[in-house]
Write a structure and sequence with these properties.
By secondary structure, this protein is an alpha/beta fold. It folds into 2 domains: 174 residues, 3-Layer(aba) Sandwich (Rossmann fold); 178 residues, Glycogen Phosphorylase B (Rossmann fold). The strands form 2 sheets. A 7-stranded parallel β-sheet has the order 3-2-1-4-5-6-7, with helices on both faces. A 6-stranded parallel β-sheet has the order 10-9-8-11-12-13, with helices on both faces. Helix 1 packs across helix 16, helix 4 packs parallel to helix 5 and helix 9 crosses helix 14.
Length: 370
């Protein structure tokens, strides 16, 4: 291509914004003259993309919650479709956020623009039959090792690029993390990781905080810290410390964790923190999800290991008593439960691939743009 490539990148929520920003930074190194326009947030802006539409008004989780955001997404798709038809871009990069991005992919393909989809929709969990909706995608960059074969077997050109968590800065040493958090070096630490979205925290916090109270009744020497987000509330925290900074410090300090299912479980695995996994959805969303779930586990560490490494508690099963019973043995590093789980977590770390996911995505994008 004689002129500088024009790239459109789209991310609909904070984690996607961060992953997309890493790709833009890698693209700028590879193609310094490229222009990049985006649907995204502050991270994409900081990486040098021109953000045409801000994502903050769009981000939701769950089937029911998404309905409220539908009109805004329809308007956004209309604007984006017009830009695609005007041939404004040479390649479109879509990051996660499948409800909207599968429609955006179809619009790009209809306009003759190649699509690179980074962080695949979790169709292996919900809807293998919907893989045909990825027909509009020229290349699929996947971040979980088992996804490459799943999508290739169904005719999608998928490439495992490694997990972007591998590119995070290393966790601080345990002693330093405990100093940062104001914790006693000699006493065990339980980390609570109820998620980053206020609605997730609202659903999990009562069970997590009550489980911590039960644990403290049995082992009063345990120190409990929650990796908190600025936008969520943690009522009745009592002796539980609330840390609103980088959650990496809490992972580094913890002997064991209570984790929301999802990427949080991989962060715990990378920090070698044995955990119990919990998740709660809107009851209607859960009723739909449980009917269509196609996999034996929901925790990513368990899916990657292809066995149950960490116990899982979904919806009504995520009771304070069950969570406390699962975590108590993990607080003792010498226990059989903690040792066995650490073996599984080592396997998960190995399977997450080497660092450099964003660089590999940028290389795929440059290939499509060229």
């Amino acid at each position: 291509m004689s002129r500088a490539p024009r790239i459109y990148i789209s991310a609909g929520e904070p984690s996607g914004d961060a992953h997309a920003a890493a790709v833009v930074s890698a693209l700028k190194r590879r193609l310094p003259a490229a222009t990049v326009e985006a649907f995204g947030g502050p991270d994409l802006e900081a990486a040098g993309a021109v953000v045409l539409d801000r994502m903050e008004r769009f981000s939701v989780v769950g089937f029911v919650e998404a309905l409220w955001k539908l009109p805004a997404h329809v308007r956004l798709l209309g604007r984006v479709r017009d830009a695609f038809r005007a041939k404004r871009y040479d390649v479109v990069i879509l990051v996660d956020y499948p409800g909207y991005h599968l429609r955006a992919a179809a619009a790009a393909r209809a306009a003759g623009i190649p699509v690179l989809y980074y962080i695949a929709p979790q169709m292996w969990a919900w809807a293998p039959g919907r893989v045909r909706r990825l027909a509009a995608v020229r290349r699929l960059a996947v971040i979980l090792p088992f996804e490459e074969r799943f999508f290739r077997d169904r005719g999608v050109a998928a490439t495992f690029v490694g997990h972007p968590l591998r590119d995070r800065p290393p966790a601080p040493p345990r002693a330093e993390a405990r100093r940062t958090l104001g914790l006693d070096q000699t006493r065990p630490v339980l980390g609570l990781f109820p998620g980053s979205r206020p609605q997730e925290v609202k659903r999990l916090w009562p069970a997590f905080s009550s489980a911590a109270v039960r644990i403290l009744a049995v082992r009063p020497e345990v120190q409990v810290v929650v990796a908190a987000t600025g936008r969520a509330h943690y009522p009745g925290a009592g002796v539980i410390r609330i840390h609103r900074g980088d959650p990496l410090a809490v992972f580094a300090a913890a002997d064991a964790g209570l984790c929301k299912s999802g990427t949080t479980t991989l962060e715990a695995a990378l920090a070698d923190v044995p955990m119990a996994i919990a998740y709660r959805l809107n009851p209607v969303s859960f009723a739909i999800a449980i009917r269509v779930l196609q996999v034996p586990h929901v925790g990513l560490v368990n899916l990657i290991a292809e066995r149950q490494v960490a116990p899982e508690f979904l919806q009504g099963a995520a009771t304070p008593a069950a969570l406390a019973d699962a975590v108590l043995p993990l607080l003792d590093p010498a226990s059989e439960a903690a040792r066995r789980q650490r073996e599984g977590l080592a396997l998960v770390r190995e399977r997450l691939g080497p660092p450099g996911a964003a660089e590999r995505v940028a290389a795929l994008a440059a290939e499509l743009a060229g």
